[in-house]
Amino acid sequence: MKILLVDDELELVSALAERLSFRGFEADWVTSGEEAMDKILEKDYVLAILDVKMPRMSGLELRKRLEHLRPGLKYIFLSGHGSEDDYNAGAAKSDSYFVKPVKIEDLVESINMALGN
Q1: 39 burial via Cβ count (<10 Å: 0-12, 13-18, 19+)
Q2: Which DSSP letter does residue 8 get?
Q3: CA 65 to chain centre
Q4: This prediction's pTM
Q5: Is 1 exposed, middle or buried (0-12, 13-18, 19+ CB in 10 A)?
Q6: What pLDDT, in 10s, does the model give residues 6-53?
Q7: Does a cis peptide bond (omega within 30 degrees of 0) precede residue 101?
C-alpha cells in the first residue's frame, strides 16, 4: 500500500517515511503541495498524510485538488500549530488529525484504521 507524505519540514517528513517503511508501509515523501500534485499522477497512492500549514499551498487546499485527481484517496492531517480552526477543518476532512510531534505508533494505528486493516 502506497502512502504519500507531504510536509514542508524536510527532516520530519523524511524520518516519518523511513519509520513507516520499517513498519511495512511503502511511503514516499515530498515537501510541497506542488510536488505532491506531480507525485500523485505518477503512482496510485491509497493514503496521503498532509501537513495542514505549508507555504504556497496548505494541506487543506492540497486535499481539494487531490480529490479531483484521485477520488477515494484517504487522508490524515498533521499540524504543528494545533489551532481550533485547523483542527475543525482538518478533523472534519480526514480520517485522523494529529498535532506534531506525532507518536509513530499512533500514526500507524490511524493508517491501519483508515485503510481498514
Answers
A1: middle
A2: S
A3: 14
A4: 0.91
A5: middle
A6: 999 999 999 999 999 999 999 999 999 999 999 999 999 999 999 998
A7: yes
